[in-house]
Amino acid sequence: MQAGRVGTRISKDLPPGRRRLAETLVALYRHMNPASLGTAAKELESRGYKKDPSEISRYLNGVRLPTEAFVLRLYEAAVARAGTAAVGMTRQQLHAIHAAAEPRLCSTCPRLKRENNELRRSLKQVSDREAGLEAALAAARERASFLPVPSPEGDRQELARDVAAANHVAQRTGDLHRKGKRSAALALLRETTRILTPAESAAALVLLRRQQHKQLAETLILTYGRDQPHDAVIRTAVKLHDYGLPDDAGALLRAAMK
Question: What's the distance, CA 31 to chain centroid?
Answer without folding.
Answer: 40
